[in-house]
Amino acid sequence: MTITTQKEKFAHFMQEAETLFAKHYEEVAERTDVIKLDPDWDQYLTLEKANMLELHTLRDDGKIIGYSIWFLLYHIHCKQSFTAMSDVLYIDPQYRKGMTGIKFLKWTTEEIKKRNPQRITFHVKPHVDYGRILERLGAHFFEKTYTIVLE
User: Fold this and answer.
1) CA 40 to chain CA mean position, Å
2) What is the pTM of this model?
3) For residue 79, what are the CA distances in angstroms to 7, 83, 139?
């Protein structure tokens, strides 16, 4: 077992990671009976081409077992604030024991810092809450989000 972390291009990822992406969606998504997984792959590719997206992967002997996708932009509310926003972060559950997940989270955070954002944001689901790990990495709780799903 050789675990590696790396930055990758999105086109290769979207072909390889569809199954893992679906597994992630089933674990964390809200109202999957109403809101179906249907990623806008073209939009991801457009953002990457504009240098507004960065993809980090976690692999075991070359097989993808996790990913972290970042959006990078000047915040619409604070146009001078270059912001790195975590879009999705996922590690296959069988790799969450031990330090693999923590090491990947630390690595992806340090890697995105190289883009020199003023602020880095994460969103954390209450039923998959890794906020304590984020706090150990220097993050603080900032905001709650509520949703209303209409049928």
Assistant:
1) 15
2) 0.93
3) 27, 10, 22
